Amino acid sequence: MASPSSAMARLEAIFIKRFHRGPMDPRDRVHLVAGRGLEGSADQGGKRQVTVMSSERWDELTRSVGAQLDSSWRRANLVVSGLNLADTRGRILWVGTCRLEIVGETRPCERMDEGAPGLQAAMSERWGGGVYGVVLDDGEIVVGDEVRWDR
Fold it and tell me: N or C terminus of the chain: which is more exposed, having fewer CB within 10 Å?
């Protein structure tokens, strides 16, 4: 039996945003398009093609403000477990067979306080909003895929 420290980091959830400020639709799988982002998502191109949030960090932050909010509330495209996303600017993240280059820290918006007062401020520390990046490879990713940092 594997020890908890050797547990595989994995893709827990995928969300597509239909339009700016629109709902986040859950998906079991999605096609990534290099240089563009998630197929069907409102955010295409630029440096913020994909946003990624740690499920553990989300749970920690919502507990800190006394809230229980589903990770979809964060509005990130990908929710991962088993990975620390803090201070990862410039690193390459493998999601299944596709690579993402982490460009920076996702800053939480005022909408976070609609879910729980104080959540935006809590998320402003230690990369609490997760990360954003660009898609380097075309390909399909599926909930349950392994996620890992490039060596």
Answer: N
47 to each of 43, 100, 104, 105, 151, how far by Cα in Å? 10, 11, 9, 11, 22
Residue 52's closest CA among 18, 14, 90, 87? 14
Q: Are 137 and 98 in contact (CB under 8 A)?
A: yes
SS3 state at 133:
strand
> Domain residues for 55?
10-149
pLDDT under 50 in the chain at which residues?
1-5
Q: How many structural domains comprise the chain? A: 1
Residue 5 resides in a domain: no
Q: Which two tokens stand for residue 109?
A: 């918006």
2-34 pLDDT, tens digit per residue, is 434 457 999 999 999 888 777 889 999 999 999
